[in-house]
Amino acid sequence: MSGAHLSRVAALGHDHLFLGDHHRRNERRTWLVIGLTTITMVAEIAAGTFYGSMALVADGWHMSTHAAAMLIAALAYLYARRNADNPRFTFGTGKLGDLAGFASAITLALIALLIGWESLMRLANPVEISFPQAISVAAIGLVVNLACAWLLRDDHAPHHGHRHDHGHANHEHHEHETSRSRDNNLRAAYLHVLADALTSVLAIFALAVGSLKGWIWLDPLMGMVGALVIARWSLGLIRDTGSVLLDYIPDGDDLPEEIRAVIEANGDRIVDLHVWQLGPGHHGAIISLVSERPQSPSLYRRKLAHIRKLSHVTIEVEPLAA
């Protein structure tokens, strides 16, 4: 093969980098949240031990579980970034965040179950509450969680990615702007923080009213309400991340129909179509079509160029048998 041919083949090569556009920013923010949570955890445990406050000690250890949940997201970001060019990941590491999000969703469901069970036990067997101290601890937790929630907010900024088209040994590659997409790993971390903030708000309300009215039962009741809300968030996250992991196209996603409309507009027919998510803002498609007047894959690529969600397209063209 001549040097010119080798240069052309090399130019048609591509990577499989399907990470979200804000992957590094989200990773840094997650590590920052872990640091903030850990500092608060150590301070609460130390203060609780020094002043003999079991409420502070208990909340400090609760913060440790919160930091552990954040660690899942942070390590997923780190591993996905460091292995983005690993050829053993056939379609890149973009879906690793969804895997971490799924694990976090299961953890969130277990937390909801534990909160619900503990609240039920407290409702059946009330215990004395030191209202001023408990309110102060809940307030500290709320402030920290609101700060963490602000750090983990999703700005929904546009992403940029690459398109790779393949067919008849031709590999086309160019940059394009992809659609806005949700980072389920960041969402999972955010929901953990939001769950803690919700329990703090409900606790402050229940404790404030309980201290005025003497309603000890209101605190565990609010705990059960919080558990139900957290469980609902968890189920939604399980559904969304599970769909990505199983390559399921959710209702309302018209990408397959959009591809068919473009390709079949001039009489060509798609006989096999596979569409799946590769990472935040990135989708892949394998298209097998038949045509009475077969064209080159690059022509079909140009037809699909306006669909910004498509980052990796494989096209197979066959002549329609007579």
Notes on the structure:
The structure is a single chain. The protein has helices at about 5-10, 25-50, 55-80, 95-125, 130-150, 185-215, 220-245, 255-265, 295-305, and strands spanning about 160-165, 170-180, 270-280, 280-290, 310-320. By secondary structure, the chain is of the alpha/beta class. The chain folds into 2 domains: about 5-175 and about 180-245, Cation efflux protein transmembrane domain (Alpha-lytic protease prodomain-like), CATH 1.20.1510; about 255-320, 2-Layer Sandwich (Alpha-Beta Plaits). Helix 2 (about 25-50) packs antiparallel against helix 3. It is elongated. The protein starts with a helix and ends with a strand. The model is unreliable at about 1-10 and about 155-180 (pLDDT under 50).
**Sheet with the most strands, sense and barrel status:** 5 strands, mixed
State the CATH architecture of the largest domain.
Up-down Bundle
What is the strand arrangement across the widest sheet?
Answer: 2-1-5-4-3
Number of β-strand runs: 5
Helix content: 55-70%
Percent of residues in beta strands? 15-25%
Round the mean pLDDT to the nearest integer and report it. Answer: 81
Low-confidence spans: pLDDT under 50, at least 5 residues?
A: 2-12, 157-180
Q: From the 3D structure, determine the CATH topology of the largest domain.
A: Alpha-lytic protease prodomain-like
**Computed Rg:** 26 Å
Give the overall shape, derived from the CA principal axes. elongated
Q: Give the full name of the CATH homologous superfamily of the largest domain.
A: Cation efflux protein transmembrane domain
Question: What's the CATH C level of the largest domain?
Answer: Mainly Alpha
